[in-house]
Amino acid sequence: NAGVTQTPKFRVLKTGQSMTLLCAQDMNHEYMYWYRQDPGMGLRLIHYSVGEGTTAKGEVPDGYNVSRLKKQNFLLGLESAAPSQTSVYFCASSLSGRLETQYFGPGTRLLVL
Amino acid sequence: LAKTTQPISMDSYEGQEVNITCSHNNIATNDYITWYQQFPSQGPRFIIQGYKTKVTNEVASLFIPADRKSSTLSLPRVSLSDTAVYYCLVGERTGTASKLTFGTGTRLQVTL
């Protein structure tokens, strides 16, 4: 039981490049989330999903897209990376509610040059 | 714009009780209050959750007043390993809905 895993752990992009961050959970959770955390700051919700095939915008969705084609996976895409998207990205999942215990992945460090 | 705020940092000696308060004066009526702990280079980890009054588990207590506009995480007898950043998580009212909002985080430093 790996919990929540994220791929990759670290990535460097040039401005304008695209990439996809993968989050996978093996706990059969319905809800999944993508957050970003900037140095010295808290976590801000980018997008979330309440079940397979559904997605919704969070607090800071601009510049990101997501997909939840399979229940266990939640993908975060950057179509055209910008330096302002340099951050640590965390994925999380919860069983069946937004404020139930969220289980977080180890994070993906993204540097956009 | 209402924010969920916490003190930026706190210092404590090992063995002391530490109380960290989160102010969330725009909390949604039906949402729980959850606290997380985060170590460097790791994702946050669940500590405790409550709706009102007092909740206690094996690692912490959570105190929530009747108006639910704040909450206090209490860590009894902290040790060096409790040095971390602590976040509250609430649902903030936005019209008829609510949005997940993490607090600003409190960096706790425990020393001998």
Topology:
The complex is a heterodimer of chains A (113) and B (112).
Chain A: E1 4-7, E2 10-13, E3 19-25, E4 31-37, E5 43-49, E6 56-57, E7 65-67, E8 73-78, E9 87-94, E10 103-104, E11 108-112
Parallel strand pairs in A: 2-11
Antiparallel strand pairs in A: 1-3, 3-8, 4-5, 4-9, 5-6, 7-8, 9-10, 9-11
Chain B: E1 9-13, E2 18-23, E3 33-38, E4 45-50, E5 53-56, E6 61-64, E7 70-75, E8 84-94, E9 97-102, E10 106-111
Parallel strand pairs in B: 1-10
Antiparallel strand pairs in B: 2-7, 3-4, 3-8, 5-6, 6-7, 8-9, 8-10
General description of the model:
The complex is a heterodimer of chains A (113) and B (112). With 113 residues, chain A is mainly beta. Chain A starts with a strand and ends with a strand. Chain A has no helices and 11 strands. Chain B has 112 residues and is mainly β. Helices cover 0% and strands 54% of the residues of chain B. Chains A and B meet through strand 5 and strand 10 of A and strand 4, strand 8 and strand 9 of B.
